[in-house]
């Protein structure tokens, strides 16, 4: 970064420090990943200089000869990769993408149904502290206390009783396959719009490692990072019937000009996701997640729903004698980055919950495979034991071992001296 280093050495040093941190730690926050060098380059171009309110061929500023082609390329790649009628690649992130759904299909006060946040849903699916729960009437469904899985019979009963206009499926801490066909049947029965939020699993869907909502959901929202391994942005994909309403909701309903440098990064990521290597990557994510879940279970970790079908694992640490927050903080000091998280029917407060949430997408990008997962589980178990004993030296030792392992696994966009 010669230009930045010369102009602002303080900021350049901070970015360098973050790059080293990402290199030396097992990054297991389920919503994070590493983008490729090509995505980094596309996202840091002169496209950030250009304003482009509107859509290709219908802009409010001149000079769109190349931007129109870039956005059209991203749209075409999204349509082909996911097999959808229409794609909008302009949303700034996942939450605005979901807000566009509300603007397109609901009026203030209308009912919207989504998974309860403590059960694994997302804030923007109608939770009380979100605008979506303040401006609309939320209807919530849970997971079974016995299985930790969604009970579609309960979902149907609630939907028939409450008659929401929109139903969300998907969430932020859902470790199991989502039954899109089952949700679609319920939505059709009450005439609701079904929205599949696949922000966490979009890369798995693209790589054939998770069933697709296409053909079941009327609208699909997703971020473009996480398992899809693109820049921090979002997309909305729809049937032809709903394309105009969604486009109008994004612009001019919620946003001004799109972030063209992000659109370019999305286009690159979608091209990468269409390659055979990405399919292998998606399936390896799931293989790693299942292997890690098995290894954690063998070490006495209680996993929500008993395991995982995707990239994500949710563990209840009550039996370990430690809360999720102090465990996550200790694991970070041990070179293992994840987040504390509520678990279904948690008896602790959200800011000090019982669980931790972790994922395998970033580890898989670095090249780790199933045979490394027992070691990861062993480090996690040892770090939590060290936290309980207030053994800072033990945490430091694990962090050194983690860094030594990762020295053999390249990080896209960064090379340690």
TrEMBL record:
Q: Domain of life of the organism in this record?
A: Bacteria
**Which class of enzymes does this protein belong to?**
transferase
Domain annotation Serine hydroxymethyltransferase-like: ranges = 5-380
List residues, modification N6-(pyridoxal phosphate)lysine.
Answer: 226
Q: Where located?
A: Cytoplasm
Q: Which cofactor does it need?
A: pyridoxal 5'-phosphate
The organism is Micromonospora zhanjiangensis
The protein's assembly and partners = Homodimer.
Q: Which GO molecular function annotations are given, in alphabetical order?
A: glycine hydroxymethyltransferase activity
Give the coiled coil ranges: none
**What is the name of the protein in this document?**
Serine hydroxymethyltransferase
Task: Say which family it is in.
Answer: Belongs to the SHMT family.
Identify the metabolic or biological route this protein is part of: Amino-acid biosynthesis; glycine biosynthesis; glycine from L-serine: step 1/1; One-carbon metabolism; tetrahydrofolate interconversion
Looking up SUPFAM superfamilies in the UniProt record yields: PLP-dependent transferases
Question: Per the record, what are the reactions this protein catalyses?
Answer: (6R)-5,10-methylene-5,6,7,8-tetrahydrofolate + glycine + H2O = (6S)-5,6,7,8-tetrahydrofolate + L-serine
Q: What does this protein do?
A: Catalyzes the reversible interconversion of serine and glycine with tetrahydrofolate (THF) serving as the one-carbon carrier. This reaction serves as the major source of one-carbon groups required for the biosynthesis of purines, thymidylate, methionine, and other important biomolecules. Also exhibits THF-independent aldolase activity toward beta-hydroxyamino acids, producing glycine and aldehydes, via a retro-aldol mechanism.
Annotated site, Plays an important role in substrate specificity, chain positions: 225
The EC code for this enzyme is: 2.1.2.1
- Keywords, in A-Z order: Amino-acid biosynthesis, Cytoplasm, One-carbon metabolism, Pyridoxal phosphate, Transferase
Instruction: Give the signal peptide, or none.
Output: none
Q: Kindly list the positions annotated as binding (6S)-5,6,7,8-tetrahydrofolate.
A: 117, 121-123, 241
């Amino acid at each position: 970064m010669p230009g930045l280093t010369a102009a602002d050495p303080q900021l350049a040093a901070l970015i360098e420090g973050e790059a080293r941190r990402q290199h030396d730690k097992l990054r297991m926050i389920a919503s994070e990943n590493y983008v490729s060098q090509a995505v980094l380059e596309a996202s840091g171009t002169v496209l950030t200089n250009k304003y482009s309110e509107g859509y290709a061929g219908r802009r409010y500023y001149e000079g769109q000869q190349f931007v129109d082609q870039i956005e059209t390329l991203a749209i075409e790649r999204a349509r082909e990769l996911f097999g959808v009628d229409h794609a909008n690649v302009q949303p700034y992130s996942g939450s605005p993408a979901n807000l566009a759904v509300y603007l397109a299909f609901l009026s203030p006060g209308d009912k919207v149904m989504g998974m309860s946040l403590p059960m694994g849903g997302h804030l923007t699916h109608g939770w009380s502290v979100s605008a979506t729960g303040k401006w609309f009437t939320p209807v919530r469904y849970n997971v079974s206390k016995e299985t930790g899985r969604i009970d579609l019979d309960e979902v149907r009963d609630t939907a028939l009783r409450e008659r929401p206009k929109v139903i969300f499926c998907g969430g932020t801490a859902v470790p199991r396959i989502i039954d899109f066909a089952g949700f679609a049947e319920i939505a059709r029965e009450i005439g609701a719009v079904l929205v599949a939020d696949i922000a966490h699993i979009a890369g798995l869907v693209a790589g054939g490692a998770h069933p697709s909502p296409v053909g079941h959901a009327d609208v699909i929202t997703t971020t473009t990072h996480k398992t899809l391994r693109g820049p921090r942005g979002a997309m909305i994909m729809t049937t032809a019937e709903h394309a105009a309403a969604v486009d109008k909701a994004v612009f001019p309903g919620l946003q001004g000009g799109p972030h063209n440098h992000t659109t370019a990064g999305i286009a690159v990521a979608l091209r990468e996701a269409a390659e055979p290597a990405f399919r292998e990557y998606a399936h390896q994510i799931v293989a790693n997640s299942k292997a890690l879940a098995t290894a954690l279970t063998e070490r006495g970790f209680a996993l929500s729903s008993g395991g995982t079908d995707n990239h994500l694992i949710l563990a209840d640490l009550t039996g370990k004698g430690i809360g999720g927050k102090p465990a996550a903080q200790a694991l970070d000091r041990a070179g293992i980055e994840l987040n504390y998280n509520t678990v279904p029917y948690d008896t602790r407060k959200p800011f000090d919950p019982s669980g931790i949430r972790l994922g395998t997408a970033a580890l898989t990008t670095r090249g780790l495979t199933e045979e490394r997962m027992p070691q990861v589980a062993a480090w996690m178990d040892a770090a939590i034991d060290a936290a309980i004993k207030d053994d800072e030296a033990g945490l430091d030792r694990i962090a050194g071992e983690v860094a030594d392992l990762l020295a053999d696994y390249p990080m896209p966009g960064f090379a340690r001296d």
